[in-house]
Design brief:
One of its GO terms (cellular component) is plasma membrane. It comes from Planomonospora parontospora. Residues 241-431 form the Major facilitator superfamily (MFS) profile domain. This protein is mostly helical and 431 residues long. 78% of the residues lie in helices and 0% in strands. It has helices spanning 23-27, 30-61, 64-72, 76-85, 94-112, 119-131, 133-147, 151-205, 222-235, 237-247, 249-252, 254-257, 259-266, 273-298, 301-320, 328-341, 344-355, 361-390, 392-417, 419-428.
């Protein structure tokens, strides 16, 4: 009879398989269901209001610049206010912050729905509504790890990510048809109702929790909170690498910003440009939904962390082939594959949560989210300017090449710092 080597259980030659959480487990948690349902409802309303605002402003001004300016206001407030306001989620009860933000946004959007509201007032109201999304998102992101532990957090994040993408596609798809039927003012009123419904869901579905415990006395100023959050995030090499992984999206979301000029290159029929634009803009989010499902369902927790580097490279590598000027069908496949690679953000998000103290998560998530929006907005802005000069196809390819170089560098940095986090994941896995 063969001898059994000491230190290894008989008949076992590998570590026990890591248990993966299922979507059913996550949805069985009532508080998460409330958080998820409220988010889905308000996201649909947001997409509807974006279409309504574009139509309303263009009807009033007949100015593409004015219409684009109002849309740009959805990027500016989180970039400016995110680092300053997100720290509120670390000093006040997170449930209360979300409810207050939802109620205030409902009131502000209701004012936008009043016929005759001036263009200047609309801009101010839009700015304030989007500004309130910063503390709301920070509070929700900080609360989620308290509701979902271990791999359930990844499954819940994947579900929320898929919901975000689906709401984006569905909201834009049905927004135009709804506005044709009800008009932009009623559409804005419907958006106000979704915010109020989200607040009611949070009131009834999420239990009260005390404000996060913090050391020291008194409440520091917003500026001090922002500086402390920046030191936390950028002073830790692991967190710094994970943040840069998140901001990599500035390269691979650039194609969405120039989808219309890209569509104009792919078709000679002006009437088909809007249809092709819709296909292009939907391809990356569709890939993200598929990638998030496969990545969270079939890859082990530690496997996700190990594969982050090459998955990040996958988001950018297919875009380089756009330099060959392929036909529409091939472009759709390339952009879809890029979206699939974006599922690495789930692993980066989960690793970030494990490295940030619970009482500092609000500020940390707010800083990352602000940088994320800045990277997206700046990438689209630079891409649009470059596409005017060189055309959309080489610009997308160049963004892919630059992103691949950055992703490869981050992958090497991550290889050196991921071991501790992987060991922590294995230690947390049930026996």
């Amino acid at each position: 009879m063969a001898a059994i080597k000491p230190g290894r259980p008989g008949g076992r030659h590998r570590r026990p398989a890591e248990r993966q959480a299922t979507y059913g487990e996550v949805l069985a948690i009532g508080e998460f269901r409330a958080l998820w349902a409220g988010q889905a409802l308000s996201l649909l309303g947001d997409q509807l209001s974006r279409v309504a605002l574009s139509v309303l402003v263009f009807e009033r001004t007949e100015s593409p610049l004015a219409t684009a300016s109002v849309y740009a206001l959805t990027y500016l407030p989180p970039i400016v206010g995110g680092p300053l306001l997100s720290g509120l989620a670390d000093h006040y009860a997170r449930r209360r912050i979300m409810i207050v933000c939802d109620v205030l946004r409902a009131l502000l959007v209701a004012l936008m729905a009043i016929p005759g509201t001036s263009f200047t007032a609309l801009c101010v109201l839009v700015f304030c509504v989007v500004l309130l999304s910063a503390p709301f998102s920070a509070a929700r992101a900080a609360l989620l790890p308290e509701l979902l532990e271990g791999d359930r957090y990844v499954a819940g994040s994947a579900l929320q990510n898929m919901t975000n993408q689906a709401a984006q596609m569905l909201g834009f798809a049905i927004g135009g048809a709804l506005i044709m039927g009800m008009g932009p003012y009623r559409a804005l009123a419907l958006d106000a109702a979704t915010f109020m419904a989200s607040a009611l869901i949070l009131v009834s579905g999420v239990r009260r929790r005390p404000a996060p415990a913090r050391s020291g006395s008194g409440r520091p100023s917003m500026w001090k909170m922002t500086r402390a959050g920046a030191r936390l995030v950028f002073g830790d090499p692991r967190l710094r690498t994970l943040v840069l992984f998140a901001w990599l999206c500035g390269f691979y979301v650039l194609p969405e910003g120039i989808a219309t000029p890209y569509a104009a290159v792919l078709t000679d029929d002006p009437q088909r440009v809007s249809f092709v634009t819709g296909l292009l803009m939907g391809s990356i989010p569709t890939g993200t939904v598929v990638g998030a499902f496969l990545f969270s369902r079939y890859v082990s927790p530690s496997g996700r962390l190990r594969s982050m580097g090459w998955m990040a490279m996958l988001t950018c590598a297919p875009l380089i082939l756009c330099a060959l000027r392929p036909p529409l069908a091939v472009v759709l496949v390339l952009w879809f594959v890029s979206g699939v690679g974006g599922a690495y953000q789930l692993a980066a998000n989960a690793a970030f949560v494990r490295c940030v103290p619970a009482e500092r998560r609000g500020q940390a998530f707010g800083l990352v989210q602000s940088g994320l929006l800045a990277a997206q907005g700046l990438g689209i802005l630079i891409g649009g300017a470059a596409a005017d000069e060189f055309g959309p196809e080489p610009v997308v390819a160049l963004a892919g090449a630059a992103g691949l170089l950055v992703a490869a560098t981050l992958a090497m940095l991550w290889t050196d710092s991921r071991k501790e986090i992987i060991e922590r994941v294995r230690a947390e896995a049930p026996a």
